[in-house]
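Re: Re: C-alpha cell formats

Sure, here are both.
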Amino acid sequence: MSITYKGFFIISLLLIQQAHTQINPDSFESNKNIIIVRSKILDTKNAYIPYANIVFINLKTEDKAGVISNEDDGVFSIELIPGEYIVQISVLGYSKYTKNYHFFKDTVLKDIVLQEQNEQLDEVIIKGDISKNIKHSATSMTINIQNDTLYKKISAADILPLLPGVQIDQEGSVTLEGEPVTFLMNGKRQRMSSDILMMLLESIQGDGLKSVELINTPSAKYSGRIKKVIDINLKKQREDGIVGSVSTRVNNADFSIMPLISINYKTGKFVFTVSSMPYFYSKRTTSFFTNRQLLDNSLSFDDEQENLRKSTNSFNEFGVDYTINKKHSVSVGISLDNGNNESGIDYITNQFAFEALTNQQFTTNANKTHNDGYTLDFGYRYDIGEQGARLDFASSYGENTLDSDLLNENELIDVSDDTTVYENNRDGQNQKNKQFSSRLDYVLSLKDKKGKFESGIKYDDLSITDANIFESFNTDTNVYNIDTDFTNSFEYNEQVYTSYASFDSSHKKLKYSLGLRLEHVETQSFSETTNQTFNNTFSNILPVISLKYMTNEKQTSNISLSYRKGYNLPPYIQLNPFETFVNSNTIKRGNPELTQNIYHLLRLSHTINNKYFFTLNANFYTNLFQTTQILEDDITVISYQNLGKRSLYKASFSTTLNLYAWWRLNVNSMFNYSVLKSMSVDNSIFTWVTPTTNTFTLPNNYIINLSTYFSNGDSSGLDTPNSFLRVSTSISLSKRFFSNKLSTRIGISDIFGATNKNESSYIIDNTSYSSRVLIQNPRISFRASYNFSSGKKVNKKAKKSSAVDGSRF
C-alpha cells in the first residue's frame, strides 16, 4: 500500500504538469438562459473606482440584482437573464448614474465614467444590511465588510462573533458551527498561538478589512484534519510608504499585558511586513476540584488543586513579498517564538476506602519551561496565460526546542497509624522537533471565471526527540539519584504524502464543488527505556462533495448539502508507552495501541434572504480517542484511549436584525446531541448554547456591546453537562479618537461567574470521574490600538506594475 500511494504521489505531479493542456475552458459552456454583463467604473481622470454599488432593475419583472466594482481595477461582472434593465450606479463622492440598457447576449459595456460631486458631505449614514453583503460559493460564504458601517467601526475580533455560525468563548477560542477553526489571512495560514492571533485581530479595524470568508465545507485542497476555515482578507496597500498599528491589551485575571506592533512598508514592487509582540506577560490562578471513585464505592479520591501559572513570551514575524512581473511573484518569511513559563500546583488529596479516610497527600509541583523556535517560509507563484491558470509552490522549515524542569515535593500521611512519608524528585525534559513541508498546486479558472479546477501534491515530515531524566531524592545520601522507572528517551517521526484534485463550477442556479484527497501517513516511534519500536501506517481516501442551490434570482437564498471525510491522528507523545510521575497516587501512561480517528461530516443548510441561516450537521466518528482518568490498583491512571463510535448531531440558527438604525441584534444558537457507545462507555448527552449580542451605535463614535450566553453547560461528548441553566453576561464600550486612528475598548466578561459553574463527569469501565474549575471573575480587559500611515500615492502606471497581493502565496 505504501508503494501504491507514493506512486500516486509522483503520478499526481505529472498530472499537474499536463492539466493545462487536458482541460479546455471553452468546454464549460454557460447556460443559454444566462448572460454576462461586464464593464469598468472610472472617474473623470480615468482612475478606476472600487466598491461602486451597481444595481440592475429588470423592467419586466422588477427584480433587482446587484454587484460591487472590484477593489483591484474597478471592473464588475454580473449574471442576468436577457431583457431590458435600468442600471443605477452610486458611490460616495460621485453623482448617481442611471441609464437604460437592452441585454440579450453577453455584453462588455464601454467604461462608465462617474462625475465627482462638488459639495462635501459632513456625515453619511449607510444602513448596514448584511443581506446585501454576502456572496455564496459551493463551499463558503463571503461577507463584504466595507459595505457595513458598524463593521467598519469595530475590530476584526469584534466582527467575528457577529457573523453567521461564529462563536468565541471566554478563553478566546473561535468555533464555526461548533467546530474549531483554522485561520487564514489573505490566504496564508497563521502559525501564531491563539492568544497572539486574537491580539492581532483586535488590532485590525474593520475599515482595514475587505471581506471575511466562512468556509463551512473546506474543499479537497485543505488537509483532512481541517474541519472549518475562516479566511480574513485585508484591504490592499495602494500607496508607497508605511501602514501599521501599535496595540496593547491588559487583563485582570490575574494580570496580563500584551503589546503588539504591526507594520507594512511598500516600496515599488516590494512589500515588507513586520508583526512583533516583543513582550507578553501573563499570570493566572486556577482552582480545580476533582473526584474519582470506583462504582462500588470501595475506593475514592478527592483532589483540590491550586494552580498558578506565569508566562513571559515574545513572538516576531518578518516577511517580504516581491512582484517580479505580472506573471511571477515570490514571498519569503520568518517567524521567531521565544518563551519562559512557570507553574506551581499545590495538591491536597484525600483517599477513602468505603467512605472512611485512609490517607492524605500534600503535593507541590514547581515547573519551569523554556522554548525557542523559528519557521522559514518560501512561496512562488507563476500566472500562466490569460485564462487565469497559475502554479503555486510553497515550502517551510521549522525547528523548536523545549526545556523543562519539574520539581515534585510529596507528603503522604497514613491516617490509620499516623505515619508520614516524604518524597522529593525532579523531572528534566529536553524536546527538539523539526518540521518540513512542501507543496505544489495548480489552479485553472474556467471560462468567464465561473469555476475552477485545482490539483496539487504535498509532503510533510515531522521529527521529534524527547529526552526525559527522572531523579529521586535519597534522604540517606542527600543526593538525587536517577530513577530508571520514570526515565525515558523517545523518538518520533511522521511522514505524510498527499495528492488532491478539486473541481468547482455552477450550472444555472446550482453551485457545486467535487474533490478527492489522498493522504498516506507513516509514523514510527521508539522508546529507549522499554526498547520498543512502534510503526503505524494510515492511508485515507477523503472525498468532498458540496452542492448549493440558489432558490431566488438575487442569489440571497439557498439550500446546501455537503459531505466531507477526514481524520485525526493521536498526539505523538501519547504513543509513548512510558509512564510519567504526577504524584504518589497519579501517573500518566502512554498508549502505543492508539489508532487514528476517522470522521464523516454531513451538512444540510438553508439560507433565507441572507438573513436567516439554518444548519443541520451529522458527524460520525470511529475509533474516537480522548484522555481518561481511571483507577487501577489504588492508582489513578491518566491515559488516552480509543473509545469507539460516536455520533454527534448539531443544529444551529443564526440571524442579524437591525431593530433600529442604532440597535442591532445578533443571535447564534447551537444545539448538540452526542451518542458515545463502546465496551467501556455508554452515554447520550444533549447540550445547547444561545449567545445573543446587542450592539448599540451611539453618537460621537461610542459603541456598546452587550452579550449574553444562555446554555446548559459544556460537554466533550464523554462527560455530562450541568443540570442547571448557565447565564454568562459580558459588556464592552468602544470609542474611536483622533480621526478614527485610535481605537479603545474596555470590557467586563463573566459578570455573574457562570464560568465557575463548569462541571464535567463521566463513567468509564468501573470508574466515575467528576471535576469543577474555579477561575477569577469577573474578567476585565482594556485594549487600545493606534493606526498610522505615511507615504504618497503612486501614479496609475506604477500602481498597475507594482501592486503586491498577499493572497498570491
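Second one below.
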Amino acid sequence: MSYAFVDTHCHFDFPPFSGNEAASLAVAAQAGVQQIIVPAVTADRFVRILKLAREHTPLFAALGLHPLYIAQHHDEQLEQLAGFLASKPQKLVAVGEIGLDLYMAEPQFERQQALLKAQLKLAKQYDLPVILHSRRSHDQLAAALRRTEVPRCGVVHGFAGSLAQAQAFIRLGYYIGVGGTISYERAQKTRQVMAQLPLTSLLLETDAPDMPLAGYQGQPNRPERAAEVFKVLCQLRPESADDIAEQLQQNSQSLFALDPYA
C-alpha cells in the first residue's frame, strides 16, 4: 500500500536541489512525499525560500536564524525576520530553524539564548509554531520554552536525546522530529525513544541534504527518503503502518496548518 508523507524538515534551498527543484520534487512525490517544509538558516536565504514556496505547490516556508550561524546573526537580521513575519507571506508556516547548540566549537551561548528568546517572542506575536534545533542543549531549550510560552508550540527536530527529555518537550506541547538516525542499528537509545513516545507527538523529517540514512553515508540526503524513515519507524512501533501514516499526516497538518494533500 502507498502512503502520503510530509517531510517536515528539508533544506531544499541548498544543493543538490538548487536548480533541480522540479525533478527533485517529482522523485519525492513518487515516494509519497507530498509536502515539504523548508526552514531557513540565515537571513540571506529568506527571499529564496519564500520564492520556492510560491513557485512549487509541495513546498512551504519557515523563516528563522539558526544557532550554528550565530556569528553571522545581528540585530538587523532579527529586524528583517520581524518584517517578513509582519508581511504574512503566502505559505509561511513556521518560525525556524531556531534553537540552541552546545556542540559547536564557539557557541557564544548567551547570544544564542538571547536570539532564541527574541525569535520565540516573534513566533508568539505572529501566532506561528517553531522549528527547533537542539544539540547537547535539550534541558536548556526546555527551560527557555517554559520561560517564553509559544501558543502554537512547535517541533524539536532531529531529536536524539533521552526519553525523559523527549517527554519534557511533549509535556510543554511540542512534537518530536523523527529522522534518519533511527535507521542506524547503533542508535539504540534514539530507536527506543521513538518506539515509546506517543504516536500523537511524532513528526517525520529528513533534514536533507544532511543526516543521511544508513546505507547512504557520504551521499546527500533527499526528501524521498522520508518514506524510508517511515518504514524503520513502522518496524519499531506496535501500531499498524496504516495507523502510523495517518497519525503522522494529522500531526503535520495540525501543527503547521497545512491543507490536506491534493
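The chain has a mean pLDDT of 97. Strands lie at 5-7, 33-39, 59-63, 92-101, 130-135, 154-156, 175-178, 202-204.
- S.
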